[in-house]
Structures
1.
Amino acid sequence: MARTKAPERTTHDAYIKPKPAFDMDTLVHCGPDIEVVEADADFRKIAEDAAFMNELVQIRFLPSQDPNAPKLVELGVNTAGATGKMRAPTEDYPAGKPGVAATGGKSVKKGFERGRVYAIPRYLVEAAAHAKIQVLEQSSHPRNPYEIVQTLRDSFLYPFEVINDPNPKGRAWLDRVMSDPA
């Protein structure tokens, strides 16, 4: 009887043993603890946040004591970008370039006269609260006139006051936003 030589195996002939599918309802030994949550929980939170930021708040921009201050308060908000649509896919970024706004995103630009009351969405109030400037003030030291004291002072570019905020959480939100650094 003649012996036949077994053919040589190559990598594409190798047999890979199939692994069982991971069962999401069981805990695998030494595996991650997976918490199964309701499918709409994240979407519901996003929808609640969006509804909160679109609530109308009555606001008045205060007159400025600066004679060079603009007479019209201009606020602009672009909702596209890191949290919205991204620019079209490229070779380097097949899913779109993150953090770069796509064309056609929601862009809101409004102008407000100082001293009048307006009902505006909360996201525009946040834009006004984040419009801050820092000024470096220099003065002589009270005890040593040859020494200069430098003080960094933050101020709002468009000072405003909230006339009416119907949401009970609105005051705490406004305090947190107003305390953000410049």
2.
Amino acid sequence: MSKKMKMVVRVLALVMAFLLILGVIVSVLLYGRAEPMPRSAYELDIFIREESHAAEISQTVQYVNSTGARLRYVMFSVYANAYRRLMTLPFEDGRLDSAFPNGYAPGGADFTSVTINGAPADWGVSGPGEQFMRVACDIAPGGTAEFGFDFFCCCPKPRAVWGRAA
């Protein structure tokens, strides 16, 4: 490349950089700085019961409706219930032995209380392994709600349900 061509490329690069910086400055002056959108927050209190292979859990979710629409219900995933039934276990076909070398025993989450803003909520679970929870609510766009969940997660000691006895 000739010296003249290199000079033209450098000048164009400087002009582009100047225009980019100018665009950022004008955007900040005209539109201000974007406020970060509030995020949902989660808090868990867990008490482990070793003798019964279970956990007592209280979970609070400070939920922020960032959908832009009024919500009449919120869906939550209940991941622990994937272990409730043999047909919903997360493992590859033919690999049950390696996934559960001491034998499979069902477990999952059993809810004792679901609240929204401290009041009892209308809720239900669905899906093949009860893996989805729907909680009725009324949350305006940008609004917040506090969901409370009290439940037990049981992980029983493997027994001769399938495979070898523990």
3.
Amino acid sequence: MNCKICKKDVEHLEKHHIVPKSRGGSDDESNLIMVCYECHGLAHDVSFSNKRGGGLIKEKIKQKNELEKQSRKWLDKNEHLVLNKMNELYQEDEDKHMLTLLLLEMHKIQAYHLADWVLNGKMKIKVQLTY
């Protein structure tokens, strides 16, 4: 397996969160990269930079923001598909429908989550509730 940073072939890779969980980052694949132990330590060093001169975390945040932007454009053009999917969910499971609406209101569901749900029938999000 190759490290996404140094490209070395190593036996064990670690998951690195692009947007830290402490700052609202998710365990979604779009927020994770697989890196070796050494690069994982360096990735948390704010002075770490990639070969193009930019920070790896900064670059991945930019990629995630671009994904969100493109997903919003797609959703604007295909809003009817999202509404149809929400209506189907309401018919199948009213509780899941209400939970989805709540998570949307809480901004826990991003545009790329919705687009993925409409296109692939799956939405994977991780939410921490505190009472």
4.
Amino acid sequence: MIRSLILMIVLLVISGCQTYTTGLQQSVDRADETVAIAALNTIAKAQLSYSLSHEGSYATLPQLAEGGYLDSRFSTDKPLKDYVLTLSVNSGGGPGFSCLADPATGRQGRHFYIDSTSGEIHANATQPASATDPAIQ
């Protein structure tokens, strides 16, 4: 009887620890997503400023950082800790840009997308996002 009671208490403690740990990880994931969304908004504003002063053309992340449109961390390969940014600048099909923010390998979180057409951030929970995914509110 006592042994069963002790086992039940141990299981409750372990369950509580797992719930706490899961909650902490979800909080970290949400914070990482917030950083990624903020970075995409910053990139879109930098691209708009760059475009206005460069006859409608757009720039790469290093060009935006060099020109002072973004801070210097964007001139590196990995400006965000837990998200990978992929910026594409259209050249042949007319001016424009698109940028993906995907969780780094081994990280959890949604995938995000923004482009020069709508300026809205789109999200996908399971794969790289695109313009066809729902926009975040």
